[in-house]
Amino acid sequence: MTVHVVGIGLDGAAGLSESARQVVEMAALLIGSDRHLSYFPQHYGERWALSDLTEAILEIRRHLANQAELEPDAGSIVLLVAGDPLFHGWGKLLIAQLPPDKLTFHPHVSCVQLAFNRLRIPWQDAHCVGSQGRYFEELTAKLKLGVEKIAVLADETRTPAAIANLVKALDLPTRYEFWVCENLGAADERVIRKSLEALLRESFAPLSVVVMLRESPPRAEPLDLAKLPLLGVPDGAFVGCGDRPGLTVEREVRVLVLAQLTLQPEQVVWDVGAGNGAVSIEVARLFPQSEVYAIEQTVSGTSAIELNCGRFGLQNVFSIHGTAPEILHRLRPPHRIFIGGSGGGLTKILGVCALRLLAGGSIVLVLEALEDIATVLSWIGDRVRREPHWSYRILQVQLSRSLLAGNLTRFDPLRPVSIITIDRLLD
Q1: Which of 289, 301, 287 is nearest to 244 (CA)?
Q2: Contacts for 409 with CB less than 8 Å, ≥ 6 apart
Q3: How far apart are alpha carbons 358 and 290 in whole angstroms?
Q4: Is residue 218 predicted with pLDDT exceeding 70?
Q5: Residue 73: predicted pLDDT
């Protein structure tokens, strides 16, 4: 006896291939939800309404055992499931619980495939978040990576509003446009683009797919500068670096960096590996009379710096597109230096920064890798032996933000970092 797992869409029997329809018609036992069974009112074999998959698997096992002993040619079992059973469906569980050689799959077009085809967008590089497993954790990871295309399967509890709440709480500089694809394949199918605010307000059909497309180039909403805090600008107020969201220093870490820099008015500040310029902009807003040089080697980063400076109305940030340490020789000697990225040349960058840094100045680095920390400690050790007017301190930072995930609140960790401050004492 063979167990046929037949995928079916909201278009019912009409959407099945001829071979899949024949499999259903010849079934000795037809198992499916009430909706799926309603598509085949003329089927006169045994029918079993599916309410619990575990019970269905036990029922199938009993039939397989009975047929093997009593009626080896009694016919097949057909299990009706939504879409493609091996794409975020029940196929994986069925393979684990039933003899694989007894299973034959007849996939239907998946809802994600339909969604991208309705939007006329290639989807071979899309990331899909299913309705099972660590749903919100998986979606959070994809958003933090800034992936270009995300398809999220929504249901009665993981609604478009819950998805929107998560995106809003993350407050990421990467922007997305949102498409809600409801009842795909049915007569009342609807594919509509919605803003984040509309997702929070409106209700949608339980059977829907939310497609999130990263905006490129990023769209810059107007800023109400009067409502922004003077210190600790929210991450979402900055335009990100497109496919490089990791170039943004998170607000909480940014505030700690500013404290370690011990800034004063009318200073020259270097921001090496500036990303989208978040640190540079914070410094420039706090000290309008200071000169801030935002050095970034990526085109997307440089573009984001210039766009963000325009949005914040800043005239004292100078965007420098180039690679450190070579570009640093052309800049005014600094009072303070922040190093947020090194591109693998950390030792050389530190050497030039130490050469150009004014007496009484400081270098602050944010590092994630243990190897980079070891490199800095080795460098400062050698430096102190030759020039004793250097000192350093390390601040280890492990922070988490509260995040609404459906009906629950959990902590979402930021990347653990070490903030190393190197001071050049007055000669």
Answers
A1: 301
A2: 402, 403
A3: 15
A4: no
A5: 55
Share of the chain above pLDDT 70, in %: 95
Mean pLDDT score, 215-240: 84
C-beta of residue 12 within 8 angstroms of C-beta of residue 37: no
Contact 11, 185 (CB under 8 A): yes
pLDDT tens-digit readout, 2-61: 899 999 998 888 889 999 999 998 888 899 999 999 999 988 888 888 877 888 888 888
Q: Token pair for residue 324?
A: 């450190």
**Is there a contact between 103 and 95 (Cβ–Cβ < 8 Å)?**
yes
Structure token pair of residue 365: 């680095």
User: Cβ distance 178 to 211 under 8 Å?
Assistant: yes
| Peptide bond before residue 217 is cis, with ω within 30 degrees of 0 | yes
The residue ranges of every structural domain in the chain are 3-108, 112-214, 225-424
Output the CATH code of domain 112-214. 3.30.950.10
The pLDDT value given to residue 264: 96
Residues 9, 166: Cα–Cα separation, whole Å: 29
One-letter amino acid for residue 358 of the chain = L
Q: Global pTM?
A: 0.75
Matching residue, tokens 């009484």: 360
Q: Are 99 and 12 in contact (CB under 8 A)?
A: no
Mean pLDDT of the chain: 89
Domain 112-214 and domain 225-424, same fold? Reply is no
Q: Confidence class of residue 72 from pLDDT cuts 50, 70 and 90?
A: low
Mean pLDDT over 146-155 rounds to: 91
CATH topology of domain 3-108: Cobalt-precorrin-4 Transmethylase; domain 1 (3.40.1010)
DSSP character string of 284-326: HHH-TTSEEEEEE-SHHHHHHHHHHHHHHT-SSEEEEES-TTG
CA-to-CA separations, 283 to 191, 233, 253, 261, in angstroms, rounded: 44, 11, 14, 10
Asked if the 225-424 domain carries CATH number 3.40.50.150, the reply is yes
pLDDT value, residue 101: 87
Residue 107 neighbours by CB under 8 Å, 6+ apart? 7, 83, 84, 85, 86, 87
pLDDT of residue 245: 62
**Which residues neighbour 245 within 8 Å (Cβ) at sequence distance 6 or greater?**
144, 145, 146, 172, 173, 174
